[in-house]
């Protein structure tokens, strides 16, 4: 097994696989990706609703979210040679109360200032776009350039192309520590004691990134958050749009195959007392998610659930990711704490990580996502 490379990537999720592909595409093919589980995309990359959105984002995320939508997603299936089921059919973020509408209006205004085509619409226009929605909806934010894609297909497409271009992937290789040599991040040590060496290390391991980063004196302020998802049996075609709500009760879309995929929240996620390896869903929380979905889409009240699953999100203290080199540890690049927003921006994030490795300016300015933004406020 190869143990030295120009670049070591910790984490075989969509961001790690995308970074590996864009590195190989630009000629940096001496790359090793270490994945803790025995399957690629086992974490959040396969446990999300597939949203490719600009609306509803923090202003700090908008530049690279917009870049991905405008320049990468439209041709991604062709580039990777796999249909990632990308559909740019718009995103409705729904509201039932005046408080909901005020929250959506603030988010929409932030997006408009950054150049996103998003506007507020009333309940009548909501029903014109999607007649299957509840009459209780009084309005929504509407972003026609948002969309959705298949998370697992996208992750595996990046993996497949990276392998074809010469990248090495090592599965069942959970990382225990990073070790510095002469002041630089140089070695990656797995739980079984295997040592990998690289000139540059990209840490993209979800919540596990926190413990790994601590081994070189870096602490990323994030917590774990358990979110659940479900898929229904096939339904007649209803709508193509991505849906969300002001209070984030649920989000999801109808797939090209007819089934609906939804992520949902119950309010108990931060109190989940489970081990990280435990991915079981709960009848208590899943039923809460289903009630929320039916409250907005009554047409699905009799739809059967085919399966449900859960996954851990790496929630950052200020709700946006950390994507940057670390000045205190030369050779280390962080790409973690995505707070459940990481799938739709993976193409641009992977591209920017490859640019950081070779010393180029990133395609958009992401200085506000640097690790050194964290300071005590008192």
From TrEMBL:
A GO molecular-function descriptor: oxidoreductase activity
- Kindly give the InterPro entries that the UniProt entry links to this protein: FAD-dep_OxRdtase, FAD/NAD-bd_sf
Alphabetical keyword list: Oxidoreductase
GO CC terms of this entry: cytoplasm
What Pfam families is this protein classified in? DAO
Q: Does the keyword Oxidoreductase apply?
A: yes
According to the entry, every stretch annotated as the FAD dependent oxidoreductase domain falls at: 7-356
| Entry protein name | FAD-dependent oxidoreductase
Instruction: Please name the source species.
Output: Anaerostipes butyraticus
